Task: structure prediction
Amino acid sequence: MSNDQGLTGSRVGPAKIIPLRRPPSSPKQVAASLERLAREVGTTLTELVAMADAQGIELPLAVQRAAASLDSRRPVTEAGTDVSAALAHFAATFDGLLTSHTLELDMLRRQFFRALGATTGAAVLPRSHMPLTEVGDDRFGFAATSQANWPDTRLSRPVPDYGVDWNLILPGGRALDGSTATIQLHSATRTLDRRSLVDITDMQRLDQCLKVPNRGLIIGAEEAAGTVRFFGLDTREARHQLTNRRAAAGHPTLTIPRAYELDDLTYGLLWAFANLDDALLADDLALAESHRELSVYERLPNSAVSREAAADLTVVSQMWLGSNFCAEHILRNLDGFEDLPLFWTREQRGEEACTWLLFRHKYDYLRKTSERFAGSATPLARAFCVPEDAVRTSPTSERVLLFLSMALMESLGIHVEVCTEADYSSVAGFVLAPGRRAIIANWVRADGIWHVDATSRGSILREFGEAGGHACAHSIISAAAPARRLAALAHYLKLDWRWLQRRCRELADCGCAGLVRPRSRLLSVAGLDAACRYVGGLPTEVSLLAG
Result:
């Protein structure tokens, strides 16, 4: 997936499973085998052939050769072998093998058919897996493009549609549960002042889409020079625009900032916002009650609250409880700090780090800690441990979220330091006055909702001092200027610095609320907008050399 391009690509949609034959083993055994393969990095078609053989499904030699050829990325051609027929047999058999509807199995099946279709074209695919462009039901190629860029997303056709072209099913993550949004597509035929214009010709159909209160997007498709670019607008922003324009013309026009082009940055924002927003809204009343009940722990100097204390809440709501309590615990205990503290932050992936950008209390907490030590001669610092494996296994959209979270801290004068040694991944979140006192505030990847403490115990001070000292002394982004630190961070995260700056500058000019407007009172775009403004305003020509 390219960092500097918008959408290009192949298909998505709920795949129809054709039960050609049942595996001789139990469905649970097949599911366990496939789930294990789906989790392993580098799952191969050769492994799938072996698995089919183990299940008593005899595949011809040509199928095995074709699988090996696909694995090695060689052209699937062999003298004397009807590769298309062999692959068609493999495709049909493999499709029938999967009798489970679990997410892992569906993702693995789609991975196979995506590789198969890209290598051989649609001729050998079962009709249930043909690219949507082949069967003529993907207007503008939106579904094919989404699948090519973000394979874990899924699209389905609502029946009846009630003004909705697609239901977008966004994946979950290690903690996130997944989310949905409705999509209505329009042709964007004109541009004006960095905005795409969508002329509404069917107002009744648009009204059907906009009157539904759930999350939705109006997508403008701009076709030019044989390519299509897609621009998204939150349906509430569309309603706001139409309120002012409906009476002004027979065919109203929606304007979509071109900064809202769908790419890895905006997709990441949509994914994070939708997952957090939906979960918090689903728990709104229960979360408020849990917050009130658990506030009794504020009077204690230390506490560790298990997840059973709020077992009826979503993981996201438990994340919010832990994050909010830890922030307040740190602020309550900072008054005793005379020396400049070092902060240790546990986030390693965009799924974890997006809370800095989107939880309302997180931005307020960052500003308060920054202001608390604003007069110090030495800048405040926050240390992260981001191992190479976390970078390698994170999609581009999540790496962008991690980058923006650290950029937000830099925007407040907080120096970010990053070490990569995985041994430090287990260090708890802390605030350290070296040799004097430590505040423990842990909720990220924690067993419970939170664990907080304040201590002067020597062993703990030495452990935290060693971790923080190592991160600062061996930071891979160490530099005097914030632009150099962030450019080095982008390089480590395998992100294009120029692309990041350009996209942040574009989003800063119009703000992000028109694309990702929160519904929950606990979320805000203020931190996100601040991060975009800061990155967009930094110099582009930055040497990655320290100094």
Q: What stands out?
A: The first helix runs from residue 27 to 39. Residues 140-262 form a domain with the Trna Endonuclease; Chain: A, domain 1 fold (CATH 3.40.1350). The CA atoms of residues 312 and 353 lie 24 Å apart. The first strand starts at residue 154 and ends at 156.
